[in-house]
Write a structure and sequence with these properties.
This protein is mostly helical and 393 residues long. The chain is built from 17 helices and no strands. Helix 13 runs antiparallel to helix 14.
Length: 393
């Protein structure tokens, strides 16, 4: 089968941030130093060559692209200052834009002004829509309970629509990614589900990709760092990354628990509850973890603490800003909820919180947040490959 070469591939990837990678002459220094490189993951050298010679299918089908955590060692050691670490980040942005079907990700990544306008318009749309359905009284009218300001049913169904749209766009992108990796690696359904041994490998790969790597951060924690540089524990990237992920997941779980308690008739959404209630305790801990992680990430990019944080794209700041505002407004709402008479500012923070949370979910497949979809899938195939090589050996 003929190989299709895209002579414009490198120029296209450069639009996503890889400005200096043309200086790379494939010396292999980055691969030799990378703590995550092995016989099946010669990155970033091989990925850079794919872009340089225009092999789009190979680039998009490279699971190794997502096993990189951008520690920055390759960029620090590159003799031509080609910044391979930033290239890998740009290639992931390019991959996200190539997987999703709408073209929105490309705009958000390559046109920062237009992308910012789109983000603001989406948030204003959600806020305006809810405000148009809100129960507004006169100055002397008794104030509604904070969570009665906008109907719970409206927020519930709006959330379902947003989740459905997010799922459709995300599923489309993941399917395209799986097809690209499967085509490049020659993986078929028979390899994953065709026998008892295949099922065993699949279950092991799921555990490795989700439990060990995505949630446990094992390789990020143990391998992806410069042994000669000791960062203080409070700002180690694996820890900050883990707290951000776990914080968001705990907040999501707290929301589901809160809604479940309402369905069971135990409590209504938005009513004050003691700190030891499951949803309140989980949400508080999750919110603190998220706020800590995102705040440290923002400080790191602002002060450029490391090579990996020396270059920031508008898309990086967009995600961090949305996450930070979601956590901050959530805590403000908690304060307003326990005030005897709901303060006027509480209603506005409630409106902003829901609008941004909806936007965050809706735009998940199109922003850097899409890593939560694509990285576990790539790590799944990476684990399958590792098992295959171990068996062959």
């Amino acid at each position: 089968m003929a190989t299709v070469v895209d002579i414009d591939l490198m120029a296209d990837v450069q639009k996503f941030g890889a400005a200096d990678v043309n200086a790379c002459f494939s010396c292999g220094n980055c691969t030799a130093l990378c703590p995550l490189a092995d016989n099946d993951a010669t990155f970033p050298r091989r990925i850079i060559r794919y872009a340089q010679v225009g092999l789009t299918d190979e680039l998009l089908g490279s699971k190794e692209l997502w096993t990189c955590y951008h520690c920055g060692l390759c960029s620090e050691s590159c003799p031509t200052e080609a910044d391979p670490g930033e290239f890998m980040a740009a290639a992931r942005r390019y991959a996200i834009a190539s997987y999703e079907p709408t073209g929105l990700a490309r705009v958000l990544y390559t046109k920062p002004v237009i992308g910012t306008i789109i983000a603001v318009v989406v948030a204003l749309f959600f806020a305006g829509f809810m405000l148009s359905q809100a129960q507004l009284g006169g100055i002397d009218a008794p104030r509604l309970a904070l969570f009665d300001f906008v109907s719970n049913d409206l927020i519930h169904w709006m959330g379902i629509v947003v989740m459905a749209l997010m799922f459709l766009a995300g599923a489309w992108g993941v399917v395209r990614m799986v097809r690209a990796i499967g085509k490049r690696d020659g993986v078929t359904l028979k390899d994953t589900f065709g026998s008892g041994a295949a099922w065993t490998r699949t279950v092991r790969a799921l555990w490795d990709s989700v439990g060990v790597e995505s949630l446990g951060q094992k390789r990020f924690r143990d391998d992806c760092h410069d042994e000669q540089v000791v960062e203080p524990l409070w700002r180690r990237r694996w820890l900050v990354h883990a707290l951000t992920i776990w914080g968001f997941l705990m907040l999501f779980a707290a929301t589901l628990i809160d809604y479940g308690l309402e369905l069971l008739g135990i409590k209504e959404t938005g009513t004050p509850i003691p700190i030891w209630y499951p949803s309140r305790a989980l949400g508080t801990v999750g919110g603190l973890a998220l706020m800590y992680g995102v705040t440290v990430f923002m400080l790191g990019r602002w002060k450029r603490w490391s090579t990996s944080q020396a270059t920031s794209q508008s898309s990086d700041w967009l995600l961090l800003t949305l996450l930070w505002l979601t956590g901050f407004t959530g805590f403000v709402i908690e304060v307003a909820l326990y005030v005897t008479t709901p303060p006027v500012w509480g209603y506005w923070f409630f409106l902003v919180h829901v609008a941004i949370a909806m936007e965050l979910l809706l735009m998940l497949p199109f922003t850097k947040f899409a890593h939560v979809m694509y990285r576990p899938v790539a790590l799944f195939f990476y684990s399958l490959s590792q098992q295959k090589h171990a068996t062959a050996a």
